[in-house]
Amino acid sequence: xxxxxxALRRTVIxxxxxxxxxxxxxxxxxxxxxxxxxxELVNAKKAQVFEVGKVMxxxxxxxxxxxxxxxxxxxxxRYAFIRxxxxxSFPVEVIKVxxxxxxxxxxxxxxxxxxxxxxxxLIELDRISEDTKYINLKLEWYDRKNEMTISLEKExxxxxxx
Length: 162
Description:
Elements: H1 2-26, H2 36-43, E1 48-58, E2 61-70, E3 74-82, E4 95-99, E5 104-105, E6 107-115, E7 118-126, E8 134-141, E9 144-151
């Protein structure tokens, strides 16, 4: 009987370890550009990439804006939502994007993947104008408000060949 209990306990431990390992691999962020077709556009020099790396706080949680990618007809904002409070996901529709002239860019979708630590995602917008110097991200979600300014000047442009 003791041997059966030991074997059962070891089996449970192995199953729990396998679940943890699988969960760990699933929590690794998606690719740098989230979608393969965006990565191909960047590699073909048909997209402009601005590395951002700025954080916007929402209560105890954070939104990390990783990069902005301008293609010929769309702009993508690559983000990670880092959650410390359990129980809710982040609706990207609460972020409004404005350029330096006050024009609002409408979200056309994107996507996100749930992770143990939050969300890894992409926001798709109408293409931001070439002459835009900076954009403002405004978050309004119930009683939560925050704002972030991101420069799109040439010196912020990333050389993908580094």
